[in-house]
Write a structure and sequence with these properties.
Blueprint: H1 11-22, H2 26-33, H3 37-44, H4 53-63, H5 67-76, H6 82-90, H7 106-118, E1 123-127, H8 134-147, E2 152-156, H9 168-182, H10 190-194, E3 199-204, H11 213-222, E4 226-232, E5 242-245, H12 259-263, H13 266-278, H14 289-298, H15 303-315, H16 318-327, H17 329-338, H18 344-348, H19 353-365, H20 371-378, H21 382-394, E6 398-403, E7 410-414
Parallel strand pairs: 1-4, 1-5, 2-3, 3-4
Antiparallel strand pairs: 6-7
Helix pairs in contact: 1-5, 2-3, 2-4, 4-5, 5-9, 7-8, 13-15, 14-16, 16-17, 20-21
């Protein structure tokens, strides 16, 4: 399918597609549906563009269409049913319910809601390391926009969260359209349903390796009030895409010892909440605050890793856990993320040899650093250093930690657990 050549699928196109997929000729379909060959021909060449409901039913029965295909054909023929359109307009579909608190992400939620609510930015990708909380932030954004009466369609690459909400008929129609879209068969009947209704479609966990961004753009072209929010470890790098890198939660400053100050840090708040969920008597005190702060720093405030640590504390003590993490922070974090279906080696494999070498050198500094140091490490022009830094930031391997000497002069730091990452993790990486 060529870029930019998608068009809204008419009833004629969809009928022709389904007939050919079934291997039937127009005459055979006429016999199967008890319609005339002329009627089938007129429907396929667009002479009759709004077939009667009974005609659509006979064709669907004759072709043995699934419930979803039947719904798509009805929608394309303008016979989707008033019930579907009323449900869509009056009882907006809902995102899945969140099962955890949103901590330390108010600014990100507000920024994304502002981007998507106005409709001026219609394709946004939240990128970042696995386990950083992209899905949770997307849920918060979807929930906030749904509360403002914007319909939300949620589609997840994880089968456990796969189906959008809504009535059975509406869900069937939406999912059939999305199945057709991501199978490379065009936008199908989705534009018939969505039309010009402002709608948010969330594609959670849709990675560039398995998703054609051109298919998404085709849908956006046909549905001019649609917004699409994607979560992915890597951005698509398309000119029409707004990339929103999501860093880990804030961690306590090095040398911080004040219990009240430590307790206000987002990563600490999350870890304490998680531990209390399994050990209600746990409390942050002067006796454990330093250890909790160090643990959050070693884990770089990555929520999925903090969740794993909370379960360890049910069966072991904090000092023992700290000793294990200090011995091999990368190994501990990689193992915890693997339990969530996240592979750090896979993420690192997207670095080429130079990028991996720069990452290793920066991680070894174990302190904040500036762009001038990156230029020195790359041994090349500043533009090359900027490109390397941009990639590390978008992958979530580097975070901004402050400023140095005035506005526009940022300080950065690699995720701390990367100090011990094995260079073999990037073996076979891309050199593009």
């Amino acid at each position: 399918m060529d870029n930019g050549t998608h068009t809204q699928t008419s009833f004629a196109e969809l009928l022709r597609t389904y007939r050919r997929r079934c291997g039937a000729t127009q005459r055979q379909l006429a016999d199967l549906s008890t319609l005339s060959v002329r009627a089938i021909r007129n429907l396929e060449n667009g002479t009759a563009s709004r077939p009667r409901k009974d005609t659509v039913r006979l064709i669907a029965d004759g072709l043995g269409l699934s419930a979803g295909e039947r719904a798509a054909l009805e929608a394309a023929g303008g016979r989707a049913g008033t019930d579907v359109k009323l449900v869509y307009g009056d009882a907006a579909t809902r995102p899945p319910a969140a099962v955890s608190s949103l901590i330390g992400r108010d600014a990100e939620r507000a920024a994304l809601c502002e981007l998507l609510s106005a409709g001026s930015q219609r394709l946004v990708t939240i990128s970042g390391i696995g386990g950083v909380g992209k899905t949770r932030v997307a849920l918060a954004v979807a929930d906030a926009l749904h509360a403002s009466r914007l319909p939300v369609l949620w589609r997840s690459a994880d089968e456990r969260w796969h189906r959008p909400g809504g009535t059975d008929r509406l869900s069937t129609l939406i999912n059939t359209g999305l199945d057709e879209l991501f199978a490379g068969r065009g936008v199908g009947a989705l534009p018939v349903l969505l039309a010009d209704r402002p709608t948010l479609l969330v594609l959670d966990g849709y990675e560039p390796d398995h998703t054609r961004i051109d298919d998404v753009l085709a849908l956006l072209a046909q549905c001019r009030s649609l917004r699409v929010l994607i979560t992915s470890t890597r951005p698509y790098e398309h000119r029409n895409e707004r990339i929103f890198p999501l860093p880990p939660l804030a961690v306590p400053a090095d040398g911080a010892h004040d219990v009240a100050s430590i307790a206000e840090v987002a990563s600490v708040r999350l870890l304490v909440e998680l531990v209390r969920a399994v050990s209600p008597r746990f409390a942050l005190t002067s006796a454990n605050a330093d250890d909790i702060a160090e643990l959050c720093r070693l884990f770089d405030g990555v929520p999925a890793v903090l969740a794993g640590a909370s379960s360890w504390l049910v069966i072991g003590d904090l000092p023992t856990l700290l000793d294990q993490v200090r011995a091999d922070p990368y190994g501990f974090v990689a193992a915890e993320l693997a339990g969530h279906g996240v592979s750090l080696p896979d993420l690192l494999s997207h670095l080429d040899e130079r990028e991996a070498a720069v990452l290793a050198a920066l991680a070894a500094l174990d302190r904040p650093w500036s762009m001038s140091e990156v230029v020195g490490l790359t041994g090349s022009a500043s533009l090359t250093a900027i490109r390397v830094m941009r990639k590390l930031l978008l992958l979530g391997l580097v975070r901004v930690v402050g400023t140095a000497g005035g506005p526009g002069r940022s300080l950065f730091r690699t995720l701390r657990f990367l100090r011990s990452f094995p260079r073999t993790a990037t073996t076979g990486s891309s050199t593009n």
